[in-house]
Amino acid sequence: MRVKKDRAIKPSGRKGFARKSSWQLYSMCAIPVILVFLFNYLPMGGLVLAFKDYRYDKGIFGSDWVGLKNFKFFFETDTFSRITFNTLFMNFLFIVTGVACSVGLAILLFELRSRRATKVFQTALIVPNFISWVIAAYMVFALLSPRNGVLNVIIEQLGGQKIDWYSKPEAWIVILTICNLWKNVGIDSVVYYASLMGVDMALFEAADIDGATKWQKIKYIIIPSLGPVISILTILKIGNIFRADFGLFYNVTRNVGTLYQTTDVIDTYIYRTMQSVGNMGMSSAVGLLQSIVGFILVMITNYVTKKIDPDRALY
Amino acid sequence: MKKKHKNRQIGLILFLTILSVLIALPFLILVSISLSEEERILSEGYGLLPRGLDFSAYEFVFKNPASILQAYAVTAEFSVITMVLSVLLMALLAYPLSRREFKGKKGISLYIYFTMLFSGGLVPTYMVITQFLHLGDTIWVYILPSLISPWYVFMMRTFFQGIPNEISESARIDGAGHYTIFFRMILPLSKPVLATVALFMFLAKWNDWYTAMLYINKESLVSLQYMLQRIMDNIKLLQEMPSGMTVNIAEIPSETIRMAMAVVVAGPALLVFPFFQKYFVKGLTVGSVKG
Amino acid sequence: MKKQRKALSLLLAGAMAVSLLAGCGDGGNANEDPEKENTENNEGEDSENGDEEPVVLKWVFPAGEQEDAASVLEKVNEIIEPKIGATLELEFVEFGAYADKLNMYMSSGADFDLCYTSNWCNDYVQAVAKGGLYPLDELIENNTTLLKDAIPEYAWEGTKIGGEIYAVPNIQIMTTGNAYYILKDVAEKYGFEGETADPEMMEAFLEKVKAGEADLIPYLVDAGNFADTLSPWLTDYEVLDSTLGIGVKEGSSEDVTACVLYETEEFKDAIATLRDWYQKGYIREDVASVGDQQADLNSGRIAVYISRNKPGGAASDSAMRGQEFIMVPFETPLVTTGGILSTMTGINKNSEHPEKAIQFLELLFTDQELYRLLAYGIEGTHYTTDENGQITYIENSGYKTDADWAIGNTFMGYSLAGQEVDVLEQTEAMNDSATKSPVLGFTFDASNIQSEYAQIASVVAEYNLLWAGTLDPEESYDEFIEKLYSAGMQTVVDEYNRQIQEFMATK
After folding, report:
1. According to CATH, what is the number of the domain C48-173+337-444?
2. Cα B50 from chain centroid (whole Å)
3. Helix A150-157 with A133-144: angle, nearest 10 deg
4. A85 Cβ partners below 8 Å, 6+ apart?
5. CATH class of C175-336+457-494
């Protein structure tokens, strides 16, 4: 509703003013654009490494071209289909569960009347985000350790059999999803909560007068007003769907080989490859591949979103 | 009606309380382990409550208090500078991108977004930073490369787009330029998003160890996370080096130190959090201006 | 859409332009190199006269920052400046960060002269393959007189890659060969003794330990460490690559062929035994996920582990871990390429003064005072000597590198108070008397099989719990071998044998 109102007002039309103000807008972008150029675009020259046999003494540009050789090894591997599937599947799972849980939590927080309670819960939800995966991995181990893990101690006390989680690949689909939620859901829900606070209160008052139920309010006011944020965050995440959170998949699983079936993803595989072979060209090649796939996926998602509702598109 | 309302609130609070406790549980374990006696951890396993009470892990971490305090100071310094500069610069960038009439909008958005997907990789970045910009071993290496994060730029842009246009339009009719509108109207109205991004940036920097590992050699510029990481690595290396050294490493409680380190790093950051939240709440009330 | 495409192509063009610019810079450097070498070689010849401004040699030193480095360096420079017309500068990088930092330094062409390199930290073979280290044969020939003889011939032999030396081997224990380290009181209580041991003896012992000591983990296994874990069974083999599982039979200097260790009877026997031990509880139940077991070792909760068979080994491990251990060898010491490659000093390929650097290394390996200064600091300020000629560090003195083994010839140094008095002599004797591997000096060049290497490494990581006992060999062994071969094992073995044959032919 509000969106329509925005559109009704046309930018002022005086030409001289428009030109001047346009320069002001450009000048605002100047410093950030330069910074991005220096720290992001300059190093991109190094992408040529993906097509080279890199030697220290010859430098990036003096090294020999090897065509697509660096890419070939990735497709040649037996594990190619497995790591690709795991990466896409787990990321998909993370996106879906992440959006659902964080929007849900944001709504619950929004429903709370007590400011103080909101504050306390927000803190509790966000705290995990402070913790690096390395440390989180120790926490997970403290819970799941087959010998002395807190969970196993409890299971035993309840008369059950200890479970060796680190030999059950299927379980880790769930365990990693929970870890990902634990760490990220709080911060996402605060993002959504923050944008919910921006919703026009008059809408709720009007809805109350019309006798709308809670559910109706969520459905017709809250979700639509979160729409742009949800869709943009999701499009951005889709751009990285071909990349995995290395810390999560490497540290939290403790790199246990038996779990690879479900936990080996592109980034962990490449890391292990680099550890054993140390070929920088190969890792550049896979990095470039991940970028290209991500780029294509974003173009497609963005295109589709744009068709449906231009306001929610990324560009 | 009223009573139903109240019940719902209580239910809500109960649910969120249980959830919060579950989320906080690993932290309890973390603190417990850090305070436990190493010996008992190894024999009895991890527990929800400390096994015994032993501060030796903390003693080890703080064995050299001057350097830890210095690391705290350096980390706080670059975290705060990064936070302030990045919020300002990203808002400056996000504002034009939120303006419909801005011609460079599409191009610049793409320019920014492109960096989220493509990066030159570690070695080229290292070369640019150390050999072209000569930022190695300066505090700026923590700050400058991470000022612009596409993700937050787009978050801000989205937020700015949600601010009713009438506000800036009326100012422009009065002859105000974009800078005036930006600083006088948009920023004050955008506290929620600014505070949120500020918190993110602060946390990201607070936990930064990789930058220090790559670019810092001066002891006086080492970040907290990296210093602790190094303490840990060095214990491990002492234990594994292929040498005939005779260093007594038996007294180093490595299990509990790990956890103590996590507490040492995360503790102060947790203290910062309520400070931000005050701004959240304030900002949030201002944020809901009638459109 | 059109506009977007335009913007995109602009960006790409921008990036290209940038890369071209950067390219010029880099290319320039590469072109300059030969000239530089020439002029410097000339300089090197008349440097003995020493009128010109002293050259500064930068050594990326494998130790944490030392507060009192300046006073040590002052003395060091007093020694070296008159002799080689160069002064030394140290950049301290501790081992925890060394591999990562050096990788960055080398790949970005950073400016330094000397560095630590080995087969476990700042990988020697990779550094050479990528052109990071300076070839030394000619340098040594033209600039030094004493260096060649200061180091045993077999050690030089071990550092050769394609017939060329790329680093100066530091001298410490150079043999490989393992021993059981057993908690002393447990060994005494359950009667484990002898000069040597084997897995059968061990099994009988473990059975008693398991029955008698409920709190102890009888036997340590580390799935990530193939070579050590399987060494009691593979005593007849020299492991050439512990990831690929490639080895050669020891003692057969006539017909040396590479074999897949994973396919040997000894290996099959080993994993069956380890599986059995796991099921009987000799191996900890959480072995798959436990990771770091040092804390358990140091608190005396593990009865038996495997480590290097070396003089004073039991004493130094006991001192380090605060528990009494005895050492019972099960392998005879063998001088191998791997043992020699475990600590070396190399010269940066981009070094501007390689001839000064090698002259400095010559001094380091021939001047005892210089070596002792860098390794231990200044006597009386940083350490004290006792009547046995052993040293004790002075606490918080500002110089304690613990790097004596990583920067030169340890036999020119001191032993520490508490070690056996003649530990250095014993070690040197062991080095010299030990059998030399028939493939000593052979280093595998993996550049032709990188893809296979990566794939095999991945398969091995997935199945390494076979030698931790948690994977059942009955179920997984055949699968493992099958996957190894589909990852290209045959190609690797063939490549190994081709290179070994080439190597033997040149010998």
Report:
1. 3.40.190.10
2. 28
3. 20
4. none
5. alpha beta
Question: Rounded mean pLDDT of A99-120?
Answer: 87
The CATH architecture to which B64-287 belongs is: Orthogonal Bundle (1.10)
- Picking from A25, A191, A240, the nearest residue to B99 by CB comes out as A25
Put simply, the answer to whether C291 touches A254 (Cβ < 8 Å) is yes
Quick check: B26 and A127 CB within 8 A? no
Categorize the per-residue pLDDT at C33 as very low, low, confident or very high, splitting at 50, 70 and 90. Answer: very low
CA distances from C284 to B255, C274, C464 (A): 17, 11, 16
Domain ranges of chain B: 1-54, 64-287
3-state helix, strand and coil shares in percent for chain A, rounded to the nearest 5: 80, 0, 20
Do domains C48-173+337-444 and C175-336+457-494 share one topology? The answer is yes
The model's pTM is 0.82
The interface predicted TM-score (ipTM) is 0.83
Per residue in A183-237, pLDDT (tens digit) is 989 878 877 887 787 777 888 888 888 888 888 888 888 888 888 778 877 887 8
CB pairs under 8 A between B and C: 123
Nearest chain B residue to C419, by CA = B246
Amino acid identity, position B187: L
Nearest neighbour of C108 by CB, restricted to B131, B233, B244: B131
Inter-chain touch B244–C410, beta carbons under 8 Å: yes
State the Cα angle at B8 between B2 and B13, rounded to 5°.
130
| Token representation of residue C311 | 């003089």
Residue C26 sits at the chain A interface (C-beta within 8 Å): yes
Q: Is the pLDDT of residue C7 over 80?
A: no
Domain layout of chain C by residue ranges = 48-173+337-444, 175-336+457-494
The answer to whether C289 faces chain A, any CB pair under 8 Å, is yes
Distance to chain C for B138, nearest Cα, Å: 16
> Which candidate, C22, C218, C175, places its Cα nearest to that of C108?
C22
User: What is the rounded distance in angstroms from the CA atom of residue B97 to the CA atom of residue B156?
Assistant: 9
